[in-house]
Amino acid sequence: MLKKFLFTQIIATTCLVANDDPRKAQKIFPSETFLMEMPQKGQKWKDISRYISSIAAQIECIPFDQNEKNWSELIAIQFFRIRGGCLKDIISEVKETALSSYPGTKVTWNILEEAENEVIYEWTIHEPFLSVPPQYEVAKAMLSPRGFHRIGYTVRNKEVTDQRKAELTKLIRKNTRVVSFSEAERLPETISCVDRAHRSAGLGETYKD
């Protein structure tokens, strides 16, 4: 069940756990989170969905002036506790799930960079399918001793030029890393599971492992 849940969550790119009251969020957290440093200071983003527990986490956020229905850019951070495993096998199944979810040639998938425990890949939905509009995502996936981490940047309903794709790939490559929750708490001008929870929930206390 966890395996099926993991792959379903990874390929989805729109508001998976919306309408949760963030003030009711659990205060048991995984010890690590992906973190993104935005290239322009002062950029404002807001949560549209989040789920956090000790074994899984998912945060989705969009530019502050957009909403759940009309967003054009989305950053998603995910964590799943997995003991052992091989990143190459996980990514292979993620790819297979994505390709099988859209018929014909509506979706393409490419690995851009690959290392032993880190992969950067892109995938594109070229045509609308059911309620899913055309969109492009570049993502980084990592496997740490604590589990599987993923961060993705999605652009929806917009033409994505080769230059824009290169910019997003550079952003994912250079401006993202897995850090401890305690380190993420000390970096407020970033996007991570920690700071998204603080900002949307208005919780003042410090989260501890």
Task: Please tell me about this protein's structure.
The protein has a seven-stranded antiparallel sheet, with helices on both faces. It contains five helices and ten strands, in the order αββββαββββαβαβα. It has 209 residues and is α+β, with helices and mostly antiparallel strands. A hairpin with a 3-residue loop joins strand 2 and strand 3 (56-63). The chain is globular and about 45 Å long. Helix content is 25%, strand content 35%. The chain has helices spanning 2-11, 87-101, 162-174, 181-185, 193-201; strands spanning 32-37, 45-52, 56-63, 73-80, 107-114, 118-125, 135-144, 147-156, 176-180, 190-192.
Q: Provide the residue-averaged pLDDT.
A: 78
Give the number of DSSP strands: 10
- Largest sheet composition: 7 strands, antiparallel
Cα-to-Cα separation, first versus last residue: 26 Å
Strand order of the largest sheet: 2-3-4-8-7-6-5
The total count of helices amounts to 5
Percent of residues in helices: 10-25%
Q: At the first level of CATH, what is the class?
A: Alpha Beta
From the coordinates shown, what is the CATH architecture?
A: 3-Layer(aba) Sandwich
Annotated CATH topology = Protein Transport Mog1p, Chain A
Beta-strand content = 35-45%
Radius of gyration: 16 Å
- Can you tell me the overall shape? globular
Low-confidence stretches: 1-8, 12-26, 196-209
What is the domain tally?
A: 1
Can you identify the CATH superfamily?
Answer: Mog1/PsbP, alpha/beta/alpha sandwich
Structural class: alpha+beta
